[in-house]
Design goal:
TIM Barrel, single chain, 15 helices, eight-stranded parallel beta barrel, about 35% helix, about 375 residues
Length: about 375
């Protein structure tokens, strides 16, 4: 129920990862026997974790490494990988500049136009390694870039914007017809980002294959501060999952929900699945991998905006290999490594044999869950106190 926030105005209480906890049931399962696989269109993946389409996280080599481990990495077609033949020097400049100079430098480095030949080249490089090619761009570029990517053998095309809607009004540029785009391409199409039931349902009606959920929760994103918009991830995932289930009941087509952003550690990923996610998209956790092109730095896709940046470059450090972060063994004590192991162990403890059963576990409101009994960890800045 909404609460009064002033005369004539009500506000609904919404919840984020730190405010809830998962409740074990009457059955437990051997973590080695749970099934965490998920489906996207006709494809099936053994790990339901995607690396976000951010230049400090994913390049061609990272996408190949992630694919060979069973996960997915999305390459940003609007970034440095398609603006520069050799982007490593550019990435090094971004990671080594001071915090005060970072935003201006990023804006300048993203000014050179995108070279369309590099779109095809990057997709072909990924496909040559025999792993799925996932790429992303903004709606304004989707029609043009999509045709190039498809010709090069791309498997999944992600159309991603700060806020995605079916009805977008603009006289400055041609608006993407999502329905027409989905019908015209052979690739699976993921659309994002949204946070509400109604918009999720409208986007699903357009023929998309999956939906990204989340506005502003990412470690490098400042959208919530700059624009004041967003819905905490637990509530936005629950609401979007309800739209997915309603759509499936009406049409018999299942549209996976991918919770995107705000998850730093295994426990938060587990909570996203409990809220209804079929998969999750993670940025900052993978930016800490030795293989990540950002060299321990992380910045959002809206950071280079020339007029109103909605992201910042953050230093996340380099803590381990991609394999350690994704499937272990973990060498740190804060839950930021072996994300797959955390998910499997959580599911086993909750009695969930697969992702669908994980979607149905009990969630409680528990704002003390992060601090209860953790005074020494907090005081010493170790474990959950980091």
């Amino acid at each position: 129920m909404a609460e009064w926030i002033g005369i004539g105005r009500r506000g609904r209480r919404c919840y984020g990862f730190d405010e809830v906890a998962l409740v074990p049931g009457r059955t437990t399962v051997n973590p080695n026997e749970v099934d965490i696989s998920w489906k996207l269109g006709k494809m099936k993946f053994k790990i339901p974790i995607l690396a976000a389409a951010m230049d400090g996280v994913v390049d061609v080599d990272f996408a190949i490494s992630m694919g060979k481990l069973g996960g997915i990495a999305v390459l940003n077609l609007d970034g440095v990988q398609t603006r520069y033949e050799n982007p490593k020097e550019v990435l090094s400049q971004i990671s080594n500049v001071s915090a005060d100079e970072a935003t201006k430098l990023v804006q300048n480095l993203y000014l050179p136009p995108i070279k369309e030949k590099l779109i095809a080249k990057r997709v072909e490089q990924i496909k040559k390694a025999k792993v799925p090619a996932f790429v992303s761009c903004i709606p304004q570029n989707a029609k043009r870039f999509g045709a190039i990517a498809q010709e090069a053998g791309c498997d999944v095309f992600v159309v991603q914007s700060t806020v995605a809607t079916v009805d977008h009004i603009s006289s400055e540029y041609k608006v993407l017809d999502i329905n027409k785009f989905c019908k015209s391409t052979k690739m699976s199409v993921i659309i994002g980002n949204s946070v509400t039931y109604d918009v999720a349902l409208e986007l699903m009606e357009q023929g998309i294959d999956a939906l990204l959920v989340g506005i502003g929760p990412g470690a490098a994103c400042t959208t919530r501060g700059v624009l004041g918009i967003g819905v905490p991830q637990i509530t936005s995932t629950v609401d979007s999952a309800a739209a997915r289930d309603h759509f499936y009941t009406r049409h018999g087509k299942y549209i996976p929900i991918i919770t995107d952003g705000g998850m730093r550690i295994g426990g938060e990923i587990c909570k996203a699945f409990a809220a209804g996610a079929d998969a999750v998209m993670v940025g900052s956790a993978f930016a800490r991998a030795k293989e990540a092109p950002g060299g321990g730095c992380h910045w959002g896709m809206a950071t280079p905006n020339a007029n109103l940046p909605r992201g910042t470059r953050v230093r996340v450090g380099t803590t381990g290999t991609l394999k350690q972060i994704l499937i272990g063994p973990a060498k740190v004590d804060d839950g930021s490594q072996n994300l797959v192991g955390a998910l499997k162990t959580s599911m086993g403890s909750l009695g969930a044999k697969n992702i669908k059963e994980m979607n149905d576990v009990e969630i409680i409101i528990a704002p003390s869950i992060q601090t209860e009994g953790k005074v020494f960890q907090i005081g010493q800045k170790i474990g959950m106190g980091k």
